[in-house]
Amino acid sequence: MKKTVLILCIAFVLNACSLNSEGDTVNCGDYINVPFSGFPLSCNYSVKTLPENPTALIITTQEKMNLYLTSHENTCANSPSPTVDFTQNFLIGIFSGQKPSGGYAIKMTTVVENSCEIVINFYEKGPLADEIVTQATTYPSDFILIPKTSKPIYFNRVNATSDTIIIGSFYGECSGTECQNFYQLNDYSVLRFLNVAYANYDFGQYKYNSLNKKGEYSLLLKTVPTEILNLKGQTKTYGGPDSHDQGGLYFELRQGIYNTKIYFDNDATTDQSAEIILFKKAIQDKINALKTN
Question: Is the dihedral of CA 29, 192, 109, 223 positive or negative?
């Protein structure tokens, strides 16, 4: 089977590898999805030497983690544990290299395996037309945890959009696992954010688990009311979410250069049209369905 393979690393060692070579993979049967977790590295660690060229790391032991990363005080709300159980997981890092400005990103999207290899799919993006970005040099990266493996690991560049939807339900006066439920929907995957802090919705700081779901972004996008699509990057609140402990719903649409955020009162307030109320139900139904995965 011929595919674009951008790096090969053997899982028993940590390698810094180029992301520019091509090669053949071996046909060892059908691929199945591998569950993985997002690891917001910057909350607790910094990379000792940021790579100027595209690079990937496979960190298999705490000693090698200490070699390449420096720990620091937690900078994120509800930060994930800074420790990694290397008896169960490997820490995977992928870097775009040095970039002249902001607006660049690299993201691992899915992890699949067959009987003889693991393939980590990823995409990269650059600044979009009319996107306002910092002019400082940046070093885009992404980190995930995958189950420990003895199989060789390949990285495969794919075409994917960075457009995404985030939906969630929240309750302020609540304690327990059902108080904050937030999910990111792409056509290639669904992510469940963990330990989201109330009213702190900078999702880049939260650990997440991948769900074996695809195509959810396009399905929900079809139901978004025109009045929300027309907001194009604005933030709007319907009613008074959680004003009397009734909770609320959250919707975020990241599409091109626009990032639209909506907060919904769970009650049917007078500023909510019939179309908005119907859309709220679609969001809640989607959240309830994802909870079972």
Answer: positive
